[in-house]
Amino acid sequence: MTNEITYNYTLHLADNALILAQRNSEWCGHGPVLEQDIAITNISLDLIGQARSLYQYAAELINGSGSPASEGKQAASEDTLAYLRDSREYKNCLLAEQPNGDWAQTILRQFFFSTYQFLLYQRLQQSPDATLAAIAEKSLKEVTYHVRWSSEWVIRLGDGTEESHDRLLNALDELWMFTGELFMPAGYELEAAKAGIGVDVSTLKTEWEQRVNEIFAEATIPTSGREGGWMQSGGKEGVHTEQLGFILAELQSMQRAYPGSEW
Amino acid sequence: MTNEITYNYTLHLADNALILAQRNSEWCGHGPVLEQDIAITNISLDLIGQARSLYQYAAELINGSGSPASEGKQAASEDTLAYLRDSREYKNCLLAEQPNGDWAQTILRQFFFSTYQFLLYQRLQQSPDATLAAIAEKSLKEVTYHVRWSSEWVIRLGDGTEESHDRLLNALDELWMFTGELFMPAGYELEAAKAGIGVDVSTLKTEWEQRVNEIFAEATIPTSGREGGWMQSGGKEGVHTEQLGFILAELQSMQRAYPGSEW
Amino acid sequence: MSVQELEKIFLSKIEQEIKIEPKDWMPDAYRKTLVRQISQHAHSEIVGMLPEGNWISRAPSLKRKAILLAKVQDEAGHGLYLYSAAETLGTTREQTINDLHSGKAKYSSIFNYPTLTWGDIGAIGWLVDGAAILNQVMLCRTSYGPYARAMVRICKEESFHQRQGFDILLALSKGTAEQRAMCQDSINRWWWPSLMMFGPHDSESTHSEQSTQWKIKRMSNDELRQKFVDMIAEQVKVLNMTLPDPHLKWNEQAKHYDFGEINWTEFWNVVKGNGPCNKQRLDARRKAWDEGAWVREAASVYAEKRKARQEKQIA
Amino acid sequence: MSVQELEKIFLSKIEQEIKIEPKDWMPDAYRKTLVRQISQHAHSEIVGMLPEGNWISRAPSLKRKAILLAKVQDEAGHGLYLYSAAETLGTTREQTINDLHSGKAKYSSIFNYPTLTWGDIGAIGWLVDGAAILNQVMLCRTSYGPYARAMVRICKEESFHQRQGFDILLALSKGTAEQRAMCQDSINRWWWPSLMMFGPHDSESTHSEQSTQWKIKRMSNDELRQKFVDMIAEQVKVLNMTLPDPHLKWNEQAKHYDFGEINWTEFWNVVKGNGPCNKQRLDARRKAWDEGAWVREAASVYAEKRKARQEKQIA
């Protein structure tokens, strides 16, 4: 039982990392400046690394569980979990799957997500689940850099030209409604928190808002006026936006077309 | 042997129709005017209808052939042929897989292709292969309309506003290099022509150019200055542009993810 | 004739089931109600193309792809009929479309839900078109002539769509375990939103009473909804699936199915613009319209040029 | 000092294998040759990101995805080193990039071929990087200091890439029949273009002689090509695959592999801009650059603002 909670919780963390990595990687070779092409690719790489560690752990859990789900199927691995689940089984938050849009939208998505992930991993380091704690600790160094990099860009765009300021506001309009879900725990998150393994994400909200507002203030972006706005949710429970199906069709195309092959 | 030639030749005709239909169908719900949204969708539907007839015939040929390719596999059908071949096996011309671009690009692609297909089917009606002749005859009515519709739009855009004229010229710049392949016969086309089943496409070129130039003249588009320009080829032999892989990843995603299911 | 006399004639026509035609006198409020309703209906057809259009490129067989494409095309056609019907009341298509894009005009809230699996295409056909048909069948007898006639054409195609949707689910229900799960999942997600399509309870419905009096509507929201539940509760048995409502139960006395309460908070929330896809749908429509501006302009400039040339030839 | 004297010093440095440094006097033609070659090399790294980038989203395992992403990122890094090396010769990165976008500057023609299957990612690593390394190893000893030092850094990563490419093909070669066919197909398509990477025959090569004299180049095109053929002809055996050249044969006397004639018509045609992807590659680079203009502007305006604020604080 605890195993299944941890399994779902771990998958959720892994899916977040993988889907955002997949999105960010679309920039590779198409960035606005070479140095930033490298930077966003680097973040992609960090996130894929996190996803791999988490999927590997989830695979261990499911393979060892003897649960009905694991019977008669090929053993789970990082790749079966990433490549052979469909969009209704993916547990990533909606924010991660949103399109790249322009550079402002990519930056803001990263800033929102990394700030959240930073707070989450900080707490997850203390998890009694040694594997999750270790992954969180290792990842935290990377995420600290993601937060700094994306914060600097938010400030640069917000306090840059009129155009960059407007584009950032537009990005905010596109993405704000997907931030609420980060702090609304899904069933398995609640249970993982109860079991002491996971983090109660609702407790991260205040600090997240503070940190976001600090950077927004420096970026000359209004820090109020968004209270009470409607928040989309569902991704963590597998009810995604129409984006995810297309992401997965591409991501999974090879494994689906050549099942059971080694690469 | 003749069977295999006919099989490949039929697949080529089918792939042309399917891939262009798939491209055109991306407009559905996103057209510039409701009436034209309907018109382009209609062309898509006609092309899918052609593709289905042709794939069904190809499936018959391969199922009845007792060839090594057919052994030990599930029986071929319109769907196995459309959904389970990879991009290196697809035989469509490069023109069909080019992106929609703006309305001018879609229109010009259709105009080039339909004018070609019209001349081709006109001749294919006389094929001693009764099935191909019948499909050509039936399709010719549809294609006649496609030619008329796309010609009218070429004229409208060419002789419309300065912007539409420029956009059409830009489309010409994007697409012209893919027109040559239509008239360069692939191996199986040559053999099909030799066997009297298929059409030697190189003989269609002059009339195609005449017809294109007539419409271009009315559209106030230069009818000369493109001679000797380099022509891309390879699609008919399975060497495509990088576009096709993505088209197929999406097109085939369901059949690949749920192999062997009935829909 | 005085307004009172005109109104008397108008009401007596309504009374005698004589259709009101574009050139007939009609009360301003009648005209306004119709314009609002017909254009809302037209917009629903157009916006309704998007969730289904989302699966055209991924339809799992060529036959299903062709059927889906034809269906979405039919919806565009329905939109055309309805924009034309609205035009007979003195609004232009452009005005009507602008009202959609500015957010002033509404469309059926159901299209603000995403299509996440192929099963959703079946569920939309079966449940959403099923619900729409009940409304549309009623509207075939609506008092305004052009609207009623548009509805007659639409109804024919729509019932075809519903059968196709059911057929998609039927194939899934006979398929693999994964397909059956896909089928049930789609029904689960689309059931309640399709019940919401009939609008608020009669007791809460603002426009209903007047519309009924004018015979624009001929059945109440709750009556239509009950009819729908009775129909679907039977059909779902053929699929060997269930509806996600623990309160659903045949009531022998009422000869109707009882069913649970709708989540009206969700309903109003989606109407207000907070559905999963409200922004995405409007953005897609605006984008198509804005990016098509140069095409429409070119077409109209060319038409003028051509006309001028022809006139010159004649002169 | 007179130009003659300066030139004498310059040539004696070259003679003694002393690196030429940015502040040293150098002949104009030497500078121009280097600028052309280094920026062409830089552009090749940048444009080279595109064919491989094309498969990042579809890499068949997470491990391969990470490796590929890191590899393409390395290429961006190599581009940076090389743009910096070019800058030491007095050109700005922006100028250099403009020359690429205007079509004035060239890049390696190999990147005008499409990546059609996952096998192509392996073939690029093994063959294209393999060919590039031979050239780059030679350039580690080139006479211009900053270029030579950039090359040392690049070479380390590049040989890693070649092994990764080979490893992709090795996995395919041990895989299913479909995978083995994919492997052979990629080798077939990339073999000849990779031979072309070494440029025209020595007898046809316009810049070679002077470059050799200045020790910019230290081996001829044909020498490098032969080295490459000898290396690959052995490695392909490990894959149990073949190279698509009926004339390929060990020549016991020469202790080299003989091989068939390159299709030079194709080579010059692709150089002229008629490769399968020339237009697509340049369009992609231009698009990235143009769409990034507002980002670069915002960054520079912000940097100025910040500097002004800091100066004000200090003052």
TrEMBL record, chains A, B:
GO CC terms of this entry: cytosol
Domain of life per record: Bacteria
Gene Ontology BP term (one): phenylacetate catabolic process
Transmembrane segments: none
Pfam families attached to this UniProt entry: PaaA_PaaC (PF05138)
Gene3D superfamilies (alphabetical): 1.20.1260.10
InterPro entries assigned: Aromatic_CoA_ox/epox (IPR052703), Ferritin-like (IPR012347), Ferritin-like_SF (IPR009078), PaaA_PaaC (IPR007814), PaaC (IPR011882)
PANTHER family, per the entry: 1,2-PHENYLACETYL-COA EPOXIDASE, SUBUNIT C (PTHR30458:SF0), PHENYLACETIC ACID DEGRADATION PROTEIN PAA (PTHR30458)
Family annotation (NCBIfam families): PA_CoA_Oxy3
Protein name: Phenylacetate-CoA oxygenase subunit PaaI
Organism whose genome encodes this protein: Niastella caeni
Organismal lineage: Bacteria, Pseudomonadati, Bacteroidota, Chitinophagia, Chitinophagales
Gene: paaI
TrEMBL record, chains C, D:
One GO-annotated biological process of the protein: phenylacetate catabolic process
Enzyme Commission numbers on file: 1.14.13.149
Alphabetical UniProt keywords: Oxidoreductase
InterPro entries reported in the protein's UniProt record: Aromatic_CoA_ox/epox (IPR052703), Ferritin-like (IPR012347), Ferritin-like_SF (IPR009078), PaaA (IPR011881), PaaA_PaaC (IPR007814)
NCBIfam families attached to this UniProt entry: PA_CoA_Oxy1 (TIGR02156)
GO MF term list: phenylacetyl-CoA 1,2-epoxidase activity
GO CC field: cytosol
Annotated gene: paaA
Name of the protein described by the UniProt record: 1,2-phenylacetyl-CoA epoxidase subunit A
Any Pfam family the entry gives: PaaA_PaaC
